[in-house]
Amino acid sequence: MAQPTARPTRETEKEASDMTTQTRMGVVALFLGAAMSSSGMAQEPIKIGLTSSFTGTAALFGQHDRYGVEMALAELNDKGGVLGRRFVLEAEDNKCSPAEGVKAATKLLSEHKVTAIIGAMCSSVTLAIMPLIQRAETPLVIPVSTSPAISPLSGKGGNNWAFRTTPSDDGMAMAIGRYLKDKGVKRMAVVAEDTDYGRGGARGMTEALKAVGISLVATEFIPQNTPDFTTLLTKIDAMNVDRVAVYLLSTDVQNFFRQYEALGARTRVTGRAEMSVVRGAVTPEFLAKGGLDGTSGLNPYAFGLDTPENKDFVARFRARYNTDPIQMSFYSYEATKVLAEAIARAGKVDRHAIREALAKTKYKSIMGGQIEFDDFNQSHNNTIMIELKDGGKVAIVGLYKS
User: Fold this and answer.
1) Total domain count for the chain?
2) pTM for this predicted structure
3) Is there a contact between 277 and 253 (Cβ–Cβ < 8 Å)?
4) Is 5 within the bounds of a domain?
């Protein structure tokens, strides 16, 4: 005999409804999971590595190195990234030490598995990691290191994975030499840190002075983190030279000019010193009375460059970091944009394709020049000669092709 059909209760109706909802959700989850598995690779971020000096002598410059990369990646991500993928930054401190630099680059490659590396601030570190990135077949974009030793080893020199966007010190030294000749300088001295950067700069300056007929009286090499420049400054004043060219980094630049003020040194300074750091190292009173008037420096960048493109960059940088950009932040910013553009032109996140795209770069720089690489993967952008005048005011006195 057939049993009468039970009428559903509120409880059974609710259970059935819950089961239906769960079933629907399960179907949706399976669909989304399948979609994500088929396109998951397209959603993975592109990992960019940065190694720079975040502690030690060059920590200030290293922080600006990071600022530039971070700002560029943030702007790119705001526009959706590249090839439908966003960027993430993996940063490792190299302390401006070759040994630490190798550790940092190794970590970026083996642990973080980055697509490309930007770095490595100090030239000694860059030279130390170049063989490593060559073996790993990973693009290295060099935005700050200026040692002349880098170019002969890159491109047709053997390492076709290293690309330098900043001018080399030998090219910049020639521009300084022409400027000094125009100023009527006859006698020079050079002070440089005892590193690849310092020795490369001093070597380039020696050749440049010889080319323009200026006498080089003395060259002094000092270790990084030198606490006392008093004896050296006294010695330079006694030489009666017209200028001393300085190749120092960050903390040493600050100490040099603080003691320059304390001693009341007379010899005017030129070379590659970052003017914002120089001005910040002395008292406002010393600046105002003209204590540094006549100080000059050739830089790959100056935030006072009066062009619409640079004014826009400076405004965006100030809004983000509440400080002015310096050459390290600027060149790291443009190096990151150059790398991202190469990835876009490569059409895929493949290291070999990116390297080939980098070699064909033609990027319009905020400096007015064009970043493109020669046979040694070296770019030749404009540089700026800066003087301090009228109580320490910054004056741009000329643009020079590197």
Assistant:
1) 2
2) 0.80
3) yes
4) no
Contact in structure between 126 and 153 (CB atoms under 8 Å): no
Is 321 found in the same domain as 253? no
Using alpha carbons, select from 323, 277, 274 the residue that is nearest to residue 302.
274
Report the distance separating Cα 179 and Cα 196, nearest Å.
24
Residue given tokens 């630490």 in the structure block? 100
Q: Is the pLDDT of residue 37 over 80?
A: no
- Looking at 106-264, which runs of residues are DSSP E strands? 116-119, 140-142, 162-164, 187-193, 215-222, 243-247
Q: Evaluate whether 386 touches 275 at the Cβ level (below 8 Å).
A: yes
Structure letter (DSSP) for residue 366 = T
- Per-residue confidence at 44, pLDDT binned at 50, 70, 90? very high
What is the pLDDT, as a whole number, of residue 265?
96
For residue 327, give its domain range.
46-167+305-381
pLDDT given at position 241: 98
Listed residues 271, 299, 327: the one ending a domain: 299
187, β-bridge pairs: 215
Distance in angstroms (rounded) separating the CA atoms of residues 304 and 317: 13
Cα 65 to Cα 71: distance, rounded to the nearest angstrom: 10
Beta carbons of 81 and 330 less than 8 angstroms apart: no
Same domain assignment for residues 291 and 309: no
Tell me the sheet residues that pair with 297: 386
Residue 9, pLDDT > 70, answer no
Pair of tokens at residue 191: 């002070």
Residues 213 and 64 occupy one common structural domain? no
